[in-house]
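Question (not urgent): is this output format expected?
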Amino acid sequence: MKIAALLLLALLSGCASVPPDAVVPNGPARIYVVGRGWHTDIGLPVDEVSGRLASLESGFPGVRFMVFGFGERAYYMAHDEGSGEMLTALFPSKSAILLTALSASPDEAFADYRVVTLRLTQSGVDRIAEELWQSLEKHGGAAVRLADGPYAGSVFYGSDQTYDGLYTCNTWTAHLLRDAGFPVDTHVVFADQVMRQAAQIAVMQSR
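Got this back:
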């Protein structure tokens, strides 16, 4: 039943796009949408991050950007793309957030992948930062660290959100963009559906 619902949603969301007459925010701040194969991330410059999320910068000397990704906890942390793990990730389960601290910009660090830069107001960045913080598991007021990540300068944190085939890493990214004020369709499953909308917004902002 879950797989059938996923396939139906994929068909319905295949044409996810930004309405051509939509009003898009713009401003001096910026964020990065990173498409890495089937997965999407959100990147924030640390000099634009304030509030509780800024506490994650400690322990990373020289960090200039923080990139966040969401995934099914066991699958994400196992770094295993076997079909058995992928099928498990379709069903409701615990999730994790991967923070990657960068000294280079996401464009440079992920040169082999697709990176879209979007401009917005500082209040839009603040909303993303607050949503990211709220999605993390806490203990004693601090984010729960699970393990080191797969890259130098990366860490897995626990998340209290549920991952399943209808709420994927790409759905999560789309919701963050919507929280920031971008007119994106959040009924997405695949990375391309998010990246296409991010690219459309970038073009609209350049006019």
